[in-house]
Amino acid sequence: MNRSSLVLLKTLLRSTSQLNIYRYGTDKKKKSRVIGNCIGMSVLYLMLMAYCILTCIGYGQIGITDVIPAICVMTISILSFFFTFFKTNGYLFNFK
């Protein structure tokens, strides 16, 4: 990657960052959306943690603890793939 591509990528990430919108934005509606997104992502993270913990406890009781890491990795990978695909839809298809 050349220097201009890195500068463009850095600018893109800063302009679309939620922290940047919250820090320098003047629109109260956008700021409340950023706070709502943070709360929503925290709730999703806690739900994913609870799901993984309860699944591990269940598999431990059944006695198949050797597949726990693989199932946790696959679950997190699939969820991150779907969330990434839906988030980058505008960037991949020219903002349509």
Protein topology:
Layout: H1 3-15, H2 18-24, H3 28-62, H4 68-87, H5 89-92
Written description of the protein model:
With 96 residues, this protein is mainly alpha-helical. It has one domain (3-89). The protein has five helices and no strands. Helix 2 runs antiparallel to helix 3 (28-62). The longest helix has 35 residues, at 28-62. The chain is elongated, with a radius of gyration of 19 Å. The model has no long low-confidence stretch (mean pLDDT 81).
Keywords:
single chain, 96 residues, mainly alpha, 5 helices
User: Pairing-aware structural class of the strands and helices?
Assistant: mainly alpha
Give the helices and strands as they follow along the chain.
HHHHH
Pick out the low-confidence regions: none
Helices, by number, come to 5
- Span of the ends, CA to CA: 27 Å
Summarize, please:
By secondary structure, this protein is mainly α. The chain contains five helices and no strands.
